[in-house]
Amino acid sequence: MSGAATEGKSITCVAAVAYEAGKPLTVEEITVEAPRAHEVRIKIEYTAVCHTDAYTLSGVDPEGAFPSILGHEGAGIVESVGEGVTNVKPGDHVIALYTAECQKCKFCKSGKTNLCSSVRATQGKGVMPDGTSRFKNQKGEELKHFMGCSTFSQYTVVADVSVVAVDPSAPLESICLLGCGVTTGYGAATKTANVQKGDTVAVFGAGTVGLSVIQGAKVRGASRIILVDINDQKRKYGNEFGATDFINPKSDLKDGQTIVEKLIEMTDGGLDYTFDCTGNTKVMRDALEACHKGWGTSVIIGVAAAEEEISTRPFQLVTGRVWKGSAFGGIKGRSEMGGLIEDYKKGTLKVDEFITNERPFTEINKAFEDLHAGDCLRTVLDLKK
Ligand SMILES: NC(=O)c1ccc[n+]([C@@H]2O[C@H](COP(=O)([O-])OP(=O)(O)OC[C@H]3O[C@@H](n4cnc5c(N)ncnc54)[C@H](O)[C@@H]3O)[C@@H](O)[C@H]2O)c1
Ligand SMILES: [Zn+2]
Ligand SMILES: [Zn+2]
């Protein structure tokens, strides 16, 4: 398939524009320019709302630029490509990648990280790699891109290093979640931590990220997987995703007992691996200190407000605990997404189970409210509606 009637032309479509921090998004018509060299225009079919979108919209993210088109957990079909694009073609089913993979930079070639530097600077400024935007509103005002994806629009333009073609038999409605939360948690367990059979694991935060850490730990054969969350409505997800225990620190601790003491007591000295999936710096400390002396490793996944710092006593590290972090689960989007889709199709990677709410795109502001409601994991928005 090639030569869409829209190829080379601007497209007018519906998008949700973030004009101001702390205000609802405005659903309106915008214009999306044709992709330039090494750019890809995608017809987004489904997108979910992740915590990071809400974080930026709230205004606490100092890098958040307005007006902009948020969204980074999306999947769709390539409408057209600019000059020099060889990795995808019109008609391909694709997932947008906020962590690019150019396969050429120092980071990509290191074999040590999934952090690619190719579009980092411009992506952070909300523009395409050539320094300009492809989005305008009907008044002709320029709108910023977000995380190199901007999936809250029926059409978006991304850099070719920020998109991966996937097996077209996998439903876009589900695999949009592989654009962030599910991949982040699963990769943190299976790549960053590299959990092994018999290991003990504790996960703080039973959102999509935390529950996906749990499924990764389960796949690896962890002997005990303890889920910690202060929201009792999340208790039911523990069993479903493979946790062996659930602790609510607000109700399940003895008088005067801390969550760290409880976890150490339950695991004869502490855990092999712990994960922060809350973004709370106090929880990050607890997660580290609940690790076993000599080898326990704690992985920070949660995103904290910009001015926040973590702390612990150095003795915690001197005595062998390891503190590390993980972005997008350490997954290289272009070379490793295919494997995740295969796992999903085989049934070893849960994805559908994270979709707790579905809405037409026009109800996107309600999807932001869903995020804060009791047992919501992900709301998937249908951009065709
Ligand atoms: N590093 C990355 O690449 C990456 C990618 C995606 C998301 N994130 C971050 O990961 C975090 C989790 O994302 P999510 O989408 O799963 O969020 P979520 O809001 O759906 O889940 C967070 C969970 O943490 C629980 N929680 C809050 N405070 C707690 C506490 N003190 N103790 C125990 N549990 C507590 C909440 O009740 C909730 O269930 C967020 O900070 C998000 O910004 C990071
Ligand atoms: Zn995200
Ligand atoms: Zn790179």
From TrEMBL:
One MF annotation (Gene Ontology) recorded for this entry: hydroxymethylfurfural reductase (NADH) activity
Ranges of residues in domain Enoyl reductase (ER): 22-381
One of the GO biological process terms: furaldehyde metabolic process
SUPFAM superfamilies named in the record: GroES-like (SSF50129), NAD(P)-binding Rossmann-fold domains (SSF51735)
Assigned keywords, A-Z: Metal-binding, NAD, Oxidoreductase, Zinc
Highest taxon, organism lineage: Eukaryota
Cofactor (UniProt): Zn(2+)
This protein's GO CC annotations: cytosol
EC number(s) given by UniProt: 1.1.1.284
Reactions this protein catalyses: a primary alcohol + NAD(+) = an aldehyde + NADH + H(+); S-nitrosoglutathione + NADH + H(+) = S-(hydroxysulfenamide)glutathione + NAD(+); S-(hydroxymethyl)glutathione + NAD(+) = S-formylglutathione + NADH + H(+); S-(hydroxymethyl)glutathione + NADP(+) = S-formylglutathione + NADPH + H(+)
Family to which this protein belongs: Belongs to the zinc-containing alcohol dehydrogenase family. Class-III subfamily.
NCBIfam families named in the record: adh_III_F_hyde
Name of the protein in question: S-(hydroxymethyl)glutathione dehydrogenase
Organism: Torulaspora delbrueckii (Yeast)
Lineage: Eukaryota, Fungi, Dikarya, Ascomycota, Saccharomycotina
